[in-house]
């Protein structure tokens, strides 16, 4: 649930978790399609907390954002991410955001191109109900 994700992220950004370890939990959340949107919403809603905790080393912030955001597969989400950072100072992690944008667009294009074929194969092999 979103509440559980938020509780976890509040812990992750507390003083109990070392800066270099913060990205580990978010990698797991980003890999979970049911938690991914809640992770992104948390980053947007708590950007000051995220930025303050991770910006002491731009490589850490860059790695965190890439690992947290690159699993999305929709053009709308890519636009949302780009729009969110549009008026932010992204010095030090701007290249990572370009990589996120490229990856999400690629994922979205792949999904659009092959989603129906994959679903058809899964149905044909009884992985999904017809």
Describe the model.
The structure is a single chain. The protein has 130 residues and is mostly helical. It is built from seven helices and no strands. It has helices spanning 2-12, 22-31, 36-45, 47-54, 58-69, 75-85, 94-124. α2 packs parallel to α5. The two termini are 28 Å apart. The model has no long low-confidence stretch (mean pLDDT 96).
Rg calculated over all Cα atoms: 16 Å
Low-confidence stretches: none
Helix-residue proportion: over 70%
DSSP, total strands: 0
Gap from first CA to last CA = 28 Å
- Note the total helix count: 7
Mean pLDDT: 96
User: What string, H for helix and E for strand, traces the elements in order?
Assistant: HHHHHHH
Shape: globular
Task: Decide which structural class fits the backbone.
Answer: mainly alpha
Strand content: under 5%
Give a short account of the largest sheet: none
Which key features would you list for this structure?
130 residues; mainly alpha; 7 helices; globular
Task: Write the topology of this structure.
Elements: H1 2-12, H2 22-31, H3 36-45, H4 47-54, H5 58-69, H6 75-85, H7 94-124
Helix pairs in contact: 1-2, 2-5, 5-7, 6-7
Structure summary:
With 130 residues, the protein is mainly α.
